[in-house]
């Protein structure tokens, strides 16, 4: 089967690599996959990649983002229509305009159309107050309804997202849930040498209790919550490490400096391999969002990475991920306003680690001399 896969932000080495893993899996099963993306990436792993070379960064303002969405929509439509013998077009949001391309290509090429809903657009930006123009809201809801109607199948990333889609009049049988995921074998293959390289690169991480956030630093991700947590933390051993890029990052760095938060470390975005190594070096993971009910349906990819690495995780929202985490004791969920409870939990974890470290201090390890120099 020949599949045209539409994903404006396709990545294979950093950030969310869900599409990369799905495309690889499809290729391994004998399908022909052509990925059309805005990023400038070379073909790999049997995936044919066509780039529209459409610049997009989280730091862009909303007008420039919309311009990027439109340019990608037009270019991806052009490239997709040039493809021959298409059996299926798979479009993954956001932006919602990708669904329009999928719908048009499927209609013209007379092929099946699958639409993957990664975020509930336009509900999320509307309910967060990002989109306020009533005329634009009507247009976006019309696009959403039309895309859902024309899709042969809709993929949601959580049961909560599926429920929201069904409540808009879509038949439940039309919607399938495929959550995010992580490759456990990747974390098992990370060696102590990989970790030592990052300890050498970022010496601030040495001998600290690492509470890690790795991902986009945007409005929804609400990194302000971590700064608030850092302000209330008195234990000097706890270090809040924030890895990634995004529109909110410059402001947050300024605020951390003004507040003289010596327990917060901002790092630039790293490759997926380095991000996974950092996860194995962390003591606890953080996945926070703003205090909005609609965000309870999300499916944060970074949460799966922490779980795959066997790291306890902290979240400040409800929903299915909170239930799963509690059921399998994979971390701790807190009410958004319970920042003191969250801090106490972290401090207790830090003290527990310190006690265990002291118990093991007399254990002799015969490190190679080259490694001893880096550690000690």
Automatic annotation (TrEMBL):
GO terms for biological process: lipopolysaccharide biosynthetic process. Residues 20-186 form the Glycosyltransferase subfamily 4-like N-terminal domain. GO terms for molecular function: glycosyltransferase activity. InterPro entries: Glyco_trans_1, Glyco_trans_4-like_N. Residues 206-284 form the Glycosyl transferase family domain. Keywords: Transferase. SUPFAM superfamilies: UDP-Glycosyltransferase/glycogen phosphorylase (SSF53756). The keyword Calcium does not apply. This is Putative polysaccharide biosynthesis protein.
């Amino acid at each position: 089967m020949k599949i045209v896969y539409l994903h404006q932000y396709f990545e294979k080495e950093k950030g969310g690599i869900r599409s990369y893993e799905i495309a690889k899996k499809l290729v391994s099963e004998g399908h022909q996959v052509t990925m059309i993306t805005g990023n400038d990436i070379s073909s790999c792993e049997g995936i044919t990649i066509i780039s529209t070379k459409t610049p997009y960064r989280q730091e862009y303002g909303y007008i420039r983002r919309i311009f990027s969405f439109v340019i990608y929509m037009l270019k991806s439509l052009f490239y997709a229509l040039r493809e021959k013998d298409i059996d299926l077009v798979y479009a993954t949001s956001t932006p919602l305009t990708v669904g329009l391309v999928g719908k048009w290509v499927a209609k013209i090429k007379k092929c099946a159309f699958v639409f993957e809903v990664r975020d509930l657009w336009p509900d999320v930006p509307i309910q967060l107050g990002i989109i306020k123009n009533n005329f634009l809201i009507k247009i976006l809801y019309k696009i959403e309804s039309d895309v859902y109607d024309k899709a042969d199948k809709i993929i949601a990333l959580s049961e909560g997202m599926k429920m929201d889609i069904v409540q808009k009049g879509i038949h439940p049988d039309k919607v399938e849930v495929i959550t995010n995921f992580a490759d456990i074998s990747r974390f098992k293959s990370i060696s102590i040498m990989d970790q030592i390289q990052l300890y050498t690169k970022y010496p601030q991480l040495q001998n600290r209790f690492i509470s890690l956030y790795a991902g986009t630093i945007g409005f929804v991700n609400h990194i302000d919550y971590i700064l608030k947590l850092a302000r209330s933390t008195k234990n000097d051993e706890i270090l809040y490490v924030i890895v990634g890029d995004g529109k909110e990052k410059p402001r947050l760095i300024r605020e951390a400096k003004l507040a003289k938060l010596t327990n917060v470390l901002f790092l630039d975005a790293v490759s997926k391999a380095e991000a996974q190594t950092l996860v194995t070096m962390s003591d606890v993971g953080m996945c926070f969002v703003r205090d909005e009910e609609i965000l309870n349906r999300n499916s944060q990819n970074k949460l799966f990475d922490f779980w795959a690495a066997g790291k306890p995780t902290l979240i400040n929202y409800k929903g299915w991920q909170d239930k799963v985490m509690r059921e399998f004791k994979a971390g701790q969920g807190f009410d958004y306003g319970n920042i003191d409870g969250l801090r106490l939990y972290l401090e207790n974890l830090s003290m527990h680690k310190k006690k265990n470290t002291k118990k093991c201090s007399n254990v002799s390890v015969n490190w190679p001399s080259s490694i001893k120099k880096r550690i000690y």
